[in-house]
Amino acid sequence: EIVMTQSPATLSVSPGERATLSCRASQSVSSNLAWYQQKPGQTPRLLIYGASTRATGIPARFSGSGSGTEFTLTISSLQSEDFAVYYCQQHNNALTFGPGTKVEIK
Amino acid sequence: QLQLRESGPGLVKPSETLSLTCTVSGGSITSSGYYWGWIRQPPGKGLEWIGSIYYSGSTYYNPSLKSRVTRFVDTSNNQFSLRLSSVTAADTAVYYCARHASGSWFVDVWGQGTTVTVSS
Question: Are B12 and B87 in contact (CB under 8 A)?
């Protein structure tokens, strides 16, 4: 089973600043990595798949990078609606999610 | 627009079987190239994939839950279902049904989720 880890667990950022979230896989998942955003009481929303492809309707301030075992989600300029929990998920071999990173207002 | 909606009892007793159904609307469950899955989220915790099924019956399960999971698809009613046996309090969670492509297992459509509590 592929184990996903995310860091940091919580990220405190001021609106307008850049946020960088990390995700690591226990073994290579090639570029088969997705990112989701989840706000309290809401369903997760697909942001990025294939490590760097934005899903339909996702703003350009969200970008993904990486391959193999190390991945990054960058939010270039945080908006108020971006404060949420972000999960990475490998989609190379079934589905495994990371534990999440909470992005909170500083 | 494709929509998924979960249904089932919100309360299940310990040791009993949890049964949930997902109804697909705005599209067909027999669409080529898509798997239909279940994902759960315990209160205050992260997401856990349970398993996925293709309309033909091909299934994949999370190894940690495989022994307790049964899944089946009802193409005539455009539904798929989950049965999780011998539940405990640890199975209390929001259960989501979801769709992912057969070639790339990222979830592009989610149901709204249904809360299931295991308690006597």
Answer: yes
The torsion of the CA quartet B15, B113, A94, A50, rounded to 10 degrees, works out to -160
From A1, A49, A99, residue closest to B106, measured CB to CB: A49
- Residue-wise pLDDT for B4-38, tens only, equals 999 999 999 999 999 999 999 999 999 888 999 99
pLDDT at B92: 98
List of chain A residues whose C-beta atoms are within 8 Å of the C-beta of residue B22 = none
Structure tokens at B15: 């040791």
User: Which residue of A32, A46, A95 is the best one to mutate when testing the B interface, meaning the one whose CB has the most B CBs within 10 A?
Assistant: A95
Tens of pLDDT, residue by residue over B40-84, are 999 999 999 999 999 888 899 999 999 999 888 888 999 999 999
pLDDT in tens, A43-57: 999 999 999 999 999
How far B73 CA sits from the closest chain A CA (Å)?
19
Question: Measured between alpha carbons, how far is residue B106 from residues A16, A43, A78, B36, B101 in Å?
Answer: 29, 15, 25, 11, 7
User: Which of B49, B111, B112 is the closest to A95 by Cβ?
Assistant: B49
DSSP-assigned letter for residue B2: -
Cβ contacts of B48 on chain A, cutoff 8 Å: 97
List C-alpha distances in Å: B72 to A14, A51, A63: 47, 31, 37
In angstroms, the CA B97 to CA B7 distance is: 10
Predicted local confidence at residue A22, as pLDDT:
98
